[in-house]
Amino acid sequence: MLSFFWRNGVETPEPLKADVTGSIPPWLQGTLLRNGPGLFSVGNTSYKHWFDGMALIHSFTFKDGDVFYRSKFLNSETYKKNIAANRIIVSEFGTMVHPDPCKNIFSKAFSYFMNAIPDFTDNNLINIIRYGEDYYASSEVNYINQIDPLTLETLGRTNYRNHIAINLATAHPHYDEEGTTYNMGTAIMNFGRPKYVIFKVPANATDKEKKKPALRKVELICSIPFHSTLYPSYFHSFGMTENYIIFVEQAFKLDILKLATAYFRDVNWGSCLKFDKDDITLIHLVNRKTGETVSTKYYADAFVVFHHINAYEEDDHVVFDLITYQDSNLYDMFYIHNMKQDVDKFIETNNEFSRPTCQRFVLPLNIDKEAPPDTNLVKLQDTTATAVLKQEGSIYCTPDTIFEGLELPGINYKFNSKKYRYFYGTRVDWSPYPMDIATRIHQVWIEEECYPSEPVFVASPDAVEEDEGVILSSVVSFNPQKPPFLVILDAKSFKEIARATIDTAIHMDLHGLFIHDNLT
């Protein structure tokens, strides 16, 4: 069974020195921070979905050729309430929790009333993000929890709603070269007309006295009304170029009425998401400097997207790459009852799920209104993506398929918003994979019985070429005789140059970032 996915993790609060084999580059100094679900049962209660597990943050610190490991549970309000009650009492996306049966009728009625408008969990298990010089554990709700990136201590909770009118926000922001953070959220309740919101937090937002949250300096860039008023699009990430924010308003939607009544109907919030395969995908371009939305209507067929890879501008076109699915079944794969199957059975069952597909879309910026209808306006030579002018002036886009079977993409972030060649991902059979966009050639690192996490690229300090650096990935195995380790790969050759074996249990994580020593 895939029990290493859903077994309860353990804390390693003090630095644990790893057993390093091979040679770690002397320039690699800093901390790899990772986040993911790590506690799946409390007392006699268990979560129903893998994405519900309480956040367990772990880190790998590189110092003079040595590696030190730490892990701590995020000390969120959700974690504190559940541990104090010795059972799960806070609902998560795939696990709806109801009042204690021992409560009296008035207490129960009050609980039902309070849940009509969900006050979401603060179990921030998806990523580590930065606002100013502060680091936060984040998910997709209105709460984020600040952490100390060195000790992993939880420093306090911030509510987006105290600073900007949103109920939900992504855990995948972008950062520009000045250190400004760009992010997106959704305003669905108590904030007037429902809308998507794009905002930024400047690099100097950190309070030097550590008393005020960085979000106090948040700046609104723009808002975009919903295509369907009661059915906002779900989005996990977005794209950014030098001048534009790219927002894909997909046909994977949240039913607001179902969300508001989920508690009463005894269904989880995850069941309020539905994919409308007969709808279209709208692509919004927003000038990130002026906040103005490009008036051209760009659209594509329905698909599901979680992760953008990169985006850039070239010869009056916006080019953006993402990972798409033909259905929304990925979420169902991670229900715990599915993951309790034998490995072979799990793989066989999930062969029917839509495979992740890396695709490129190209949006022409200068539209020749005199062009005949059904003209492909893409002038770039290195892509088969099309953007066809329709009779009413809208642009129908079809993608160029780059590769199938990759998820959790990462790039050399110095090339974010720029034309690039390489991205790194994890295959659906969980082995790291680099991809050369220009040649469509890929390389593989794989080890039997092992499951690597999202690959993180760290550039060497004097790098000239895009792929000069290393790939870091924490690796777990379903074989209890194989200890977990961090693998370090040469990003150019994809050969293993070192590994740091950890003498304690490590959980499977989701996302994170590398913090160089001079930033900690």
Please explain how this structure is put together.
This is Beta,beta-carotene 15,15'-dioxygenase-like. Fe cation binds at residues 172, 236, 307, 511. Its cofactor is Fe(2+). Pfam families: RPE65 (PF03055). Belongs to the carotenoid oxygenase family. This protein has 520 residues and is mainly beta. Strands 1, 3, 4, 7, 8 and 39 form a 6-stranded antiparallel beta sheet that branches. It contains 7 helices and 39 strands. The longest helix has 10 residues, at 105-114. It has one domain. It is globular. The model is unreliable at 101-117 (pLDDT under 50).
Strand content: 35-45%
End-to-end Cα distance, whole Å, is 39 Å
- Tell me the number of structural domains: 1
Shape: globular
Return the structural class. mainly beta
The tally of strands reads 39
- What is the alpha-carbon Rg in Å? 23 Å
Count of separate DSSP helical elements: 7
Average pLDDT value?
91
Largest β-sheet summary: 6 strands, antiparallel
* Uncertain residue segments: 101-117
**Overall helicity:** under 10%
Short description:
By secondary structure, this protein is mostly beta strands. It has 7 helices and 39 strands.
Q: Descriptors for this entry?
A:
six-stranded antiparallel β-sheet
Secondary-structure map:
Elements: H1 3-6, E1 12-17, E2 19-22, E3 30-35, E4 37-39, E5 41-42, E6 45-46, E7 54-63, E8 66-73, H2 77-85, H3 105-114, E9 127-131, E10 134-138, E11 143-147, E12 154-159, E13 168-169, E14 174-175, E15 181-187, E16 195-201, E17 219-225, E18 239-240, E19 244-249, E20 252-254, H4 256-265, E21 273-275, E22 280-287, E23 298-301, E24 304-314, E25 317-325, H5 330-333, H6 336-339, H7 343-349, E26 357-364, E27 386-389, E28 395-398, E29 400-404, E30 406-410, E31 422-427, E32 432-436, E33 441-442, E34 450-452, E35 456-459, E36 469-477, E37 485-490, E38 496-501, E39 511-516
Parallel strand pairs: 23-28
Antiparallel strand pairs: 1-8, 2-38, 3-7, 3-39, 4-7, 5-6, 7-8, 9-10, 10-11, 11-12, 13-15, 14-15, 15-16, 16-17, 18-19, 19-22, 20-21, 22-23, 24-25, 25-26, 26-29, 27-28, 30-31, 31-32, 32-33, 34-36, 35-36, 36-37, 37-38
